[in-house]
Each structure stands twice: as C-alpha cells, then as structure tokens.
C-alpha cells in the first residue's frame, strides 16, 4: 500500500523569503515617508524666502534701499529642532529688520530666518563680488530636523540671483 503524504505549512526558507521581502518593503516605506516629510518642511523655507524676496523688492521700490543692515537679524531667536516653534510676531524687537519688513508667518515655523541688507558692504567674502557697488539683500532659512545640532538644512536667497540656494535639504 502506497500512501501519498501531503506536506502542510511552509518551509523555513519560504518564511525567510517572506520576512526579507517585508523588511525591504518596510525600509522603502520609511525612506519614502522621510523624504516626503523633509520636502514638506522645506517647502516652508522656499515659500518664506519667496515672500522675503517680494517684500524686499516692494521695500526697495518704496524707499530706494533694501530693508535691514549689514548686521544679520534673526527670527525666531533660536533654530528650531525636531519640532516647530512659534513665529511670535508680536515680540519681534522694533529694531529688527523682520519687524521693519512687515513680513509675518502664519504661526509656527520649522526654520530660523536671517536677514541682512546694505550697499557695497556685504558680510563675508562670498558676497562681495555679487553685491559690488549696488544695494543688496540676503536672507537665509536654517533648520535642524534631526536635532543633532550639527547638520542643518539651509536655504538662501539674495538680490543678486533669482534662485534659492540650498544645502542639506534632508538633514
């Protein structure tokens, strides 16, 4: 009498293959989610710096100079890390260029914003050639998404170039 035995269940190899596939899919999902969140956070910097450019050009048309001084004005006072912080426009000092420019954020922000402006006295050697003998402004957004206080996401816009410069967009 020949009996046919049927096999029930999975072999250890089949289970290992399924676990490996699930691990790879999970990794891809986490990486995709992280890129999506960074892109959403970075869009704040692009929008705010675009608004700074528009406000500075309006200010220049009205007063013949850009708003600010060669000293860098920062707002909010600290670089946010891993969480948004309040823009708190009511507490911006009157002598801060952010107050004079009149630009406001709708609430909380992922970045600290920096602003400087002047005429032929740009801070740092990297700007002197770009701004030589003409009014200029420079604005920067700095964020620390992973909270390590070492790798920052940085975005800059100047009166000399129409594009936004960025560094460390995924930090």
Report a brief summary of the structure:
The protein is an alpha+beta fold and 171 residues long.
List the helices and strands and how they pair.
Layout: H1 12-63, E1 73-75, E2 85-86, H2 97-101, E3 108-109, E4 112-119, H3 125-128, E5 135-143, E6 153-158, E7 165-167
Antiparallel strand pairs: 1-4, 2-3, 4-5, 5-6, 6-7
Shape: elongated
Helix percent reads 25-40%
From the alpha carbons, calculate the radius of gyration and give it in angstroms.
25 Å
Query: How would you classify the helix and strand content by structural class?
Result: alpha+beta
Number of strands: 7
Distance between the termini: 70 Å
Our count of domains comes out at 1
Proportion of β residues? Answer: 15-25%
Low-confidence stretches: none
Main beta sheet: strand number and arrangement? 5 strands, antiparallel
Describe this structure as you would to a colleague:
The protein has 171 residues and is an alpha+beta fold. It has one domain (42-167). 36% of the residues lie in helices and 19% in strands. The chain is built from three helices and seven strands. Strands 1-4-5-6-7 form a five-stranded antiparallel beta sheet, covered by helices on one side. A two-stranded antiparallel sheet has the order 2-3. A hairpin with a 6-residue loop joins β6 (153-158) and β7. The longest helix has 52 residues, at 12-63. The chain is elongated, with a radius of gyration of 25 Å. The model has no long low-confidence stretch (mean pLDDT 84).
């Amino acid at each position: 009498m020949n009996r046919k035995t049927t096999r029930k269940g999975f072999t250890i190899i089949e289970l290992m293959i399924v676990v490996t596939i699930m691990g790879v899919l999970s990794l891809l999902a986490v990486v995709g989610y992280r890129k999506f969140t960074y892109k959403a956070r970075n869009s704040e910097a692009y929008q705010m710096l675009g608004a700074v450019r528009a406000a500075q050009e309006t200010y220049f048309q009205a007063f013949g100079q850009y708003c600010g001084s060669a000293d860098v004005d920062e707002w909010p006072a600290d670089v946010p890390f891993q969480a948004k912080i309040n823009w708190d426009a009511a507490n911006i000092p009157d002598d801060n260029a952010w107050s004079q420019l009149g630009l406001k954020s709708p609430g909380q922000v992922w970045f600290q914003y920096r602003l400087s402006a002047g005429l032929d006295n740009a801070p740092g050697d990297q700007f002197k050639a770009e701004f030589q003998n003409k009014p200029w402004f420079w604005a920067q957004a700095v964020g620390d998404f992973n909270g390590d206080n070492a790798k920052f996401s940085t975005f800059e816009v100047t009166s000399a170039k129409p594009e936004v410069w960025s560094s460390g967009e995924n930090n």
